Records
---
Amino acid sequence: MLRNLTEAYEFIEKQKEIRNAKLRNLSVYICVGTGCSAKGAQKVYRKFQEVLEREKLSVNVFKMDDAHEGIVRKTGCCGRCSSGPLVVVQPYGYFYAHVGVDDVEKIVERTLKRGEIVEELLLIDFETNERVKSLEDTQLYKRQNFYIMEDIGKSECDSIEDYMGRGGYSSLLKVLSSMKPEEVIETIKASGLRGRGGGGFPTGLKWEATRKSKSDVKFVVCNGDEGDPGAFMNRTLLERDPHLVLEGMIIAAYAVGAQKGYAYVRAEYPIAIQMLQKAIEDARRLGLLGENILGTGFSFDLEIKEGAGAFVCGEETALLASIEGKRGMPRPRPPYPAQAGLWGYPTLINNVETYANVPRIIRDGVEKYRKLGTPGSPGTKMFSVTGPVKMTGIVEVQFGTTLRQIIFDICGGLLNNEKIKAVQIGGPSGACLSVEHLDMPLDYDTLKSVDAMVGSGGIVVISEKTCMVEVARFFLDFTKRESCGKCVPCREGTAQAYRILEKFVNAKASEEDLKNLEFLAKLIKTASLCGLGKTAPNPILSTLRWFRSEYEAHLRGICPSGSCTAFKKYVIDEKLCKGCGLCARSCPNGAISGERGKPYVIDPEKCVKCGLCVEKCRFKAIKVA
Amino acid sequence: MERTYEAVEQILRKYNYRRENLVKILLEVQKLHRYLSKDVIHYVAVALQLPPAKVYGVATFYAQFSLKPKGEYTILICDGTACHMEGSMSLIKAIEEEIGIKPGEVTKDLKFSLDCVGCLGACALAPAMVINDEVYGNLTPEKVKEILRSLRGDGDAQKSN
Ligand SMILES: Cc1cc2nc3c(=O)[nH]c(=O)nc-3n(C[C@H](O)[C@H](O)[C@H](O)COP(=O)(O)O)c2cc1C
Ligand code: SF4
Ligand code: SF4
Ligand code: SF4
Ligand code: FES
Ligand code: FES
């Protein structure tokens, strides 16, 4: 327990020394983020512990006794989840990818005992096709701007001491020892930080409004719902550096005058919840959370609330209702949470990544912070990149970076020489952009100018094999299900729009439907109560705007990408067909007929396009057109 | 833990019978019972001094809750954006072929249940699924079938022990 600021400063200095010593010593860092865990990282971690435990018996030979103490450390997501499990060996910085349990002995023998590189485990850089020694040597790494994700492969996600050894909580100490709440707010305002939860609202203004609301009781809430399918940066951040978020929240509480906070994290994120829970307990243990923090008279405590899987709960008023234990239904604003939030008290609500920026801004000062990003959108943004690209995972770049840079320079472009057709950005409420937009700088205002938004930062790359009408249908299916049902335009409108889109992909749509769809989309946008309804039509509107020809083609009986089943035609190539009759026997609908020894034919009326016959034919005579 | 009301009571006590903890309480109770039965909902309602209709309201609102029994292994197939594009539909088909259930259903022996979820946050490994607490990524229909077979095998082995 640290009793005052001086003790805290001394503690941090001591942790810095310890950490530096640790980094000079042999250490193995294993990524235990969700991505790597799904590929067996926990097993690799246990195996390392086991092997090192056993080897300790023979330490005399290898003189590794000192290094053994806590040598295996858990580190957070390195953003290269598709190459996991990842293992970094310090002080060499060797970066091993796809590490299996069976590779552990090899690493212990060769790298830990002899300092050699295990060549075959090194990551292959997609650009040079060569194995690279360390993460820092990859283009992937060099072209990003790691800022809130600093210390990749060198940080321990479950240790407050390690966080402090990296200078963590210094910003909190600075704030508590030398800044008035108003000064903190001025700093955040001057930094130009904007909310990372989607809307991009200036964070400082929100803090100021909450500070100015008169009340003895105030709350600070962290929005870690992240219901956007395709987005996982909040999860990543909570898993890899929970204290960074925590420190941001404590500073926010001090600035707005709150005593109690809630972190709302969805139950689908068990590792994030576990990491954050441990972080909270450790912070309490050291006296950084709780009553009379570091003897300064400021008290603040924090509790985790689990979300239970409703997209609309990410909307701030719904989220607050959910924290109160109710159904998560949005309500009209004003009053804004800053005036009347939890149980009617002023409440500050920000996104996970927004809070993570705060300690950095305090540490670096406004001027240095604003050097990153664009004048209107300072700083960096984490994006989760998925789809058929060579590297899927998390990237962090400064605002103003283009989609092309992210997709091609950092993520290595598309797999299997596929061509890019579109980019979906900002989740179900976001928009589909076309290749024309690849060179557009990504920032709040530029995206807004093409009716798109940063959203939470999900980027889904779409190749030419995907049908854009189907993409729109998929998103509407999602919003239709997630609509809370409170207002008619959203509830009925999305259901209706979905039915029309279904007609399109089932080859049953008419001109009339196209008109209705456009009309409906605009209506839902203007008449819905909350952000969910207001943005639900964005996938329709953006695909209509940039990919209208695909809708029109569907009206003419063609799916340009060839992916909508309803438009597929199964035909037998007369020249290749030997007339064996196998296909006719396996067709579930009796659509194939013929005479043995002669070419068979498919009756398109009866064919239900199951594709079974294609698999059966040994002569590859059946084609899909 | 056992499927008893004593255990439910323990959970309620842990959260100090506070109404604002309803969602958390229901999540834990569900982990214990694998679903929320009518009886359990009434029990929780009485304990928190809430009308049962209100507890029902919450239990039906969130996707995580189920009012029907779930399997010993709850399979959650992700049909989020990334997973959908990488073929989550073919995984659902494979599961149906292997154990004969569709999303929202349970096998007769209560061994497996299947549901779709929005996004598991493992999109980099799309398509992904979760069985109980284990995340599986980069799946193919064949891999899914293999996993199901081994789980079925495991379960039987446990029983004969
Ligand atoms: C349907 C809907 C879902 C949302 N989901 C999230 C979410 O998952 N995470 C988040 O931080 N903000 C989400 N938001 C935005 C929040 O309402 C709110 O603006 C945000 O948490 C404010 O934090 P910020 O100012 O730091 O961005 C959502 C909004 C809507 C309308
Ligand atoms: S717009 Fe949709 S989600 Fe929002 S309140 Fe209305 S029905 Fe509910
Ligand atoms: S299985 Fe192939 S070769 Fe045999 S009848 Fe059918 S199309 Fe012809
Ligand atoms: S696709 Fe299916 S229904 Fe159509 S001809 Fe082949 S087997 Fe028969
Ligand atoms: S989870 Fe390990 S790199 Fe992302
Ligand atoms: S879309 Fe499937 S895990 Fe995110």
Note: Chain B is about 50% helix and 10% strand.
---
Amino acid sequence: MLEVEICDIKMKNPTVLAAGVLGSTAASLNWAARSGAGAVVTKSFGMEPNKGYPNPTTVEVEGGIINAIGLSNPGVENFRKELEKLEGKVPQIASIYGSTPEEFAHIASRVENMVDALELNISCPHAMEGCGASIGQNPDLTTQVVKAVKKSVKSPVIVKLTPNVTDIVEIAQAAEDGGADALTLINSLGPGMRIDLETARPVLSNRFGGMSGPAIKPVALHCVYQVHQRVNLPIMGVGGIMNGNDVVEFLYAGASCVQIGTAVMYRGMEVFSRINSSLQKFMTDKGYQTVEEMVGLAHE
Amino acid sequence: MNFPQVIKINRIIEETPTVKTFIFPWEVTDETPGQFLMLWNFADEKPMSISIIDPVNDEIGVSVKMVGTFTKSLHKLQENDKLGLRGPYGNGFEIAGSRVLAVGGGIGMAPISAFTEEASRRGVEVDVVTAATTKGEILFQERLEITGANVLPTTDDGSHGFCGFATELAEKLIKNEDYDMMVVCGPEIMMKKLFAISNRYQLPGQFSLERYMKCALGICGQCCVDDVGWRICVEGPVLWTDQLKMVTEFGNYRRDSSGIKKTF
Ligand SMILES: Cc1cc2nc3c(=O)[nH]c(=O)nc-3n(C[C@H](O)[C@H](O)[C@H](O)COP(=O)(O)OP(=O)(O)OC[C@H]3O[C@@H](n4cnc5c(N)ncnc54)[C@H](O)[C@@H]3O)c2cc1C
Ligand SMILES: Cc1cc2nc3c(=O)[nH]c(=O)nc-3n(C[C@H](O)[C@H](O)[C@H](O)COP(=O)(O)O)c2cc1C
Ligand code: FES
């Protein structure tokens, strides 16, 4: 009943572990898969090892957290060793980042045979100069990066967008022009920040970071709704999903499946199976036979 | 809320030439020995085990060994200086059984001391092996003797107490005494040997692990261990022997801040 398919990737349910929430090692990805996730996305990795920002890298706020981990990762060659250890119980998506179309294309071709799809992170709100949102805020760069990756690999290419733009539809269309197979909406919102009262200092060492968690759900939902209306690509909805009802809202808005991030902090790895069973109950109560029937209903 | 509270240091105890204990005012609620706090010195933030839990005077303490940039900066602080604290985090030690062997190597004595005090208060008989390289580095001997625990210092160079490694003394004790459980914190090499001993003598044990931490909230994945993927900041830092059996990286390697494996 919960099965979904996105870019020919078959998933047993529509809940996917979001990029960068755990996912830095095969062990934590396998754990998410065993815990009921329908698919898993790795932590974003790039060409070279990256330590990320100094601590504090996370701080809790009302309705979620702000993080500026800074894309810490061991680099593509080390990460390949992790990918080798993936159990393959569920579809596996590699999230990659770079600063040029060539870098993206190189990394993509190094890992495409080890995963079912690639997710391009052009949307991190606190990445280093030239990476992340600085690409995803520019339609031309977005098209170029997607094109370069599409040219170098056969696997489906999913593009993850930032909500931190004037018009997300414009960027979604730019990704479509580049040949994207699907979109992930949205990366963490912001940047945002929090300042300590005693010392008058920003808490995060990077001063600002991306907001995630329940507080960003309305924004994410609106992004999904708008893009679904205007762009003809399947959407993975993400942002503040905590329970089965949240998933339903995203499906109604036009997402074909959802990713779950910060909820893992609040509800543990069991969050996937719990959300799936409550979604299933909702569908039974309402008489839905498939998840697909629910996609985009809010537009009718 | 997981936000650092900036607090004035009540007192600082110079424990040894390299270890200082920092004591903060703290409304003790459900803090347990083995849990840790994140300490913010306004330049960086790192995990530190709780070494003192004092619900009577409403105080909490951490003991810090000077090893690098962060800990050096802490050692320069004076009473009334401020630090940011958030927590407590992680699963602490369970207090179980009526006779327990506690083993702490070096700064690993920090959570072991909190455990010993709490277990002794609850009437558990505790034999504590406090291990150090040399006499001047032995931690918490007097403090723990007051609790009624049987304190057994050991030094690598034999300058105080038992001469030799904590592992040798622990094995001797386990052979001759009748313990229900052991609790351990120290260098991973030491813990690996004690883990083998715990299996050999079928003595259940709880081991406190250290892994690189960023969020301490269970979301960044930095502290996940192979092959189970558990987060040391949430599912740990204390693991029982039967859980530890599944942590294949234990005693072999850990990951640095970029996630690259470093062997012990
Ligand atoms: C759960 C836990 C409890 C701890 N309890 C104590 C304690 O009670 N007393 C104490 O003195 N130390 C404790 N530590 C270690 C402490 O957090 C620092 O790692 C250590 O003090 C070194 O800091 P430094 O910057 O001075 O040295 P550095 O030279 O900068 O670091 C030395 C080594 O410390 C480790 N390290 C550095 N940063 C971190 C980090 N963010 N998380 C984990 N490890 C890191 C790395 O292996 C590094 O190579 C604990 C660590 C963990 C994970
Ligand atoms: C600690 C943390 C790390 C993240 N790292 C990445 C990353 O490496 N790549 C990426 O595309 N998104 C990353 N994200 C964003 C999430 O994948 C997700 O888009 C965002 O958190 C919103 O979803 P949520 O509210 O369910 O967490 C990260 C989020 C968090 C909280
Ligand atoms: S330190 Fe981030 S998950 Fe444990």
Note: Chain B touches chain A through 38 residues (CB under 8 Å).
---
Amino acid sequence: MRRGGLEYALRAFWIVLLVFLYAPLAVVVFFSFNSINSSARFAGFSLQWYERLFRNEAIVSALTNTVVLALVSTLIAVLIGGLLGYGFYRYRLGRLSWLIWLIYLPVIMPDIVFGIAEMTFFVAINERLGILSPGLGTMVIAHVTFQVPFVALLVNARLLSLDPQLFEACHDLYAGPWQRARFFLLPVLRPAILSSFLLALTLSIDDFVISFFTAGPQSTTLPIYIWSAIKKGVTPEVNAIATLMIGSVFVVALFSLLAQHGASGGKQSKGGTKA
Amino acid sequence: MLITIAPGALCILVFLVLPSAYLVGMAFLTNGPYGLPTLPLSLQSFRELAGFGFLGWSPGNLYTLIRSVWQTLLATALVILLAYPAAYYISTRPARWRPLMLLVIVVPSWTNQVIRSVGWMNIFAPGTPVSDFAALLGLTAPQMGLFPSQFAVIVGLVYNFLPFMVLPLYAAFERLDTEQVEAAKDLFASPVAVFRHAVFPQTLPGLMAGTVLVAIPAFGMYVVTELLGGGKATMIGNLVARQFAQASNWPLGAAGAIIMIAVTLIGLKVLRDLGRRLGGDREVVL
């Protein structure tokens, strides 16, 4: 049967694709337990690279910086971006409508260009005014700036999908600005806010280039630490840090899977998965 | 109105538009003694970028630009070739498996791009089974790794951007009107003809969206080329970064950044026209 042949071919392709996707990660995890400094030959199981890792203060502070940067920038970006997405929906901007197009700037701007623009800008400001010296502060500003457009677009898209009569109903019921926000906007925007939070967090954690160019000497993040370690040729320790980061990604993936499962199990008929 | 729009608009204006404008302006300054831009205004950095140095004309930078475009096109084409069957396969599985399969595709991209490159460095290093096998086939010299090389860069690019193509293509396949496909089969269309006339036009919007998501960041790539290319396959992004990271010539770097944005915009325009031509009367939103 032809159909059977195609089916088998696709299944084989799928397996090859999974090997392609997971082999690099598996290799990193595997060689992080190597007892010798090599990524070509496995000489025996050992946890020595992990022990070194936790005794290394530079790595511990890089870990803290990574988490602080991601959480702080994401919280600010969700607040500012959410408000912006709402503002673009709620108000006619008239002469300022070109502002909306600026939001697409980060989409077409390569991150290397954005990172360098930020760096030169911060340097210029710092030289003249003495503020914004490179460090965690400048990194948070840079991250918030590239996160805001994504949050605003997601929140805006959600608002556009709502029935406009809902807003009129709010008005008819004499809801004040606070009541409107508390009892109407926040509940209906919850999914959009949650997904933009996760997206912004992912963008921040995945970023290397922009952090690299806006970081100061005291504000190394884990990716930056790994980067400079590779350049010096230190591999097994890098594999160990990378393994910890891969591990945390898989914990998050597991949670998202459980959440998805819970959501579709709870309300089978209108669950997120299209039946 | 001020409360909602002002913070975001200010953030974007001050920290995105202003720095970009500053960078654009820098390209028209002259390179000073310590690599820092100084007056007077000139087109010196653009001339230099085009290859006119004090030793006469050399095509190095032009090669880098051409190589960047070529590597981007190649990686995007390979990503499309891998993503089409993957997206189709996922869309034909039972509905309850699909979210899990999509998650499996996406999860590796949640790890940092530096880590993903480290993974490939481990695989392509000298002495690994993969490198030894390549040497056995005569593809590389013995005792040499597969990285750094242009090959490793392409693998890294494909690996990085595959999910961005699978997701929009899957979305297109899920909405696919199967009756059109059945009709084509009833009319004895060959599998190629079925794909060409019934499947491809319907998945074109997904393909276009995916191409934008893949090609633009691939063209601006810095990490993969720097780690897996190691100077053998530098792209324009690395050329630009080098002018700043080693503080050698900021105006030249800024001019390179302008060229990068210009090429990106031209690429978007070409894609849009291509989408219109391929899509015929269909609306291919970009």
Note: Strands of chain B lie at 30-31, 37-38, 52-53, 56-57.
---
Amino acid sequence: MNRTSPLGQAGLWIAILIAAVVTVFPFYWMLNTALKPQSEVFLSPPAFYSANWSLEAFRTLLVERPFARYFLNSLIVSLGSTLLSVALATFAAYGFTRFHIKGAGALIVFLLFTKMLPETLLIIPYFRLMSELGLINSHLSLILAYSSFALPFSVWMLIGFFRSIPLEIDEAAIVDGASRITTLWRVILPLARPGLVAVALFTFLISWNAYVWALVLTTDPSMFVLSVGIANMVGEYRVQWNELMAAAMIAAVPVMVMFAFLERHLVNALTAGAVKG
Amino acid sequence: MSNTTTTTNIPARAWTGRGLARERWHGYLFLAPTLLFLAAVIVLPLFHAFWTSFQRIRGLNSTFVGFANYVRVLEDEAFWHSLRVSLGFVSISVVAHVVLGLLLALALNKITFARTALRVLFLTPWMVAAAVGATIWLWLLEPQFGVINYILQSAGLISAPVAWLGTPGTAFAAVTTVEIWRGVPFIMLLTLAGLQTIPAEQYEAAEIDGATTWQKFRFITLPNLKYLLVVASTLDIINVVRHYDIIGIMTGGGPAGATEVLPALLYNTAFRANRFGEAAAIGVLLLLMVLIFAAMYLRITRVGQEDDRR
């Protein structure tokens, strides 16, 4: 099927290149603008490349604006929800794959269902519950919220990984006198490490990229995460586009780097997990 | 991809060792933390949302009003308008995602050079936060200094700068474009994985029979991908119909409600107008729509599972 005529190959590559340009140009423009000094942002015609690229906008963001704080908030919240949901998902996936669970099918459908709820609907009770608990403007409220929508997916993905580990391995460990917990911790988890990495990464990315929850659950600027900090800049009277694009880079580049390194893991997990649910 | 079509047969291989019966209930201990957590952070809020949809909320006071919120929402033209906007937004986006995602996957499947690198590259819009992607597009579409107006003007396609997000028609086109840009990679990724499961022999046999490229696509690729494409579009519908971030950042639902999809109407009713009861009612109606597609999804994937067993 790969035997295509040279003309066909050329056409194919032209199509791919056009698609690639459309896909990536916005990110190039983000980089280009982020690196421009203030004086060149509003040039007409716009400069597609500048000899004066500098890190001025980043310096302003980190020194004069609280973006270091936003970055830290994003990091705390994403790491917190990753830890929480991977820990819970590990136990759940072990339970699903190692035991006879009555109604396992119904529970799986329930997990699927929780993944499909409109988040804007859940935000209303969340906002009211968190207000009553005094948890507005706390990392905890975001960690709980992000874990709630990352957890079903984590369980899904981990079930797939745990199923690929033969039950005989558990049996052998238990015959040797290990408890279930020891078996899980000392035998299964090391074997499932690639899966755990993929799940942890995916949870991290979901939390890092989330927007509307943090928008509603934080009102104090010192508690903003990156996405809300960025949205807040969009609403300013006179938008400093080079700073805004630098902020977008601070949010986007960690994701791109993580993804480029772990693409294969993640893609395998996602294609299996996504089509499954 | 061999396991992509299985859904509910998770505990298929129960441990047959003698330990099983004795510790049967231990399995529930492993599930308990997750189930309790989800009960607290999903089920409880969900019930709370239903309860809210039957209340009129004034500050800290709420009174039970039965279906009054639903009646008010359904009698309000804004809801029906929003439903139409959602239908347009979702159908255009999903069709474009599937068509472009499929084409892109077919193209990537044909090449051997730089395939992994290109796959990562094409996934970028999908892995970066929707809120960030939308922010970048705001700048691209900026009326006075935005690069899109500059490019279109240089190419002679428009004579004067266009305020893309300022008029209803172009604003809808703009947010839909951004949603398409963001969602194509997801379908591409699934389709690419699906393409790799099609046995090469089928193509070889077709070539011996002198099939054209179109015939191979029509009679081998498409039938093999049919199931995957149906599942992927159902998932995509569920994802797009709930999605708020892009429109929340770019237009907030405006101008004149032109981009006020249901999640945007819900958000604005709750957090701009402070009418939580009505917002919850809109949310429940949105949930019902999602559930229709979720039920479809479950049905389809179960059918697929039976196909596998044959």
Note: Residues 1-19, 303-310 of chain B have pLDDT under 50 and may be disordered.
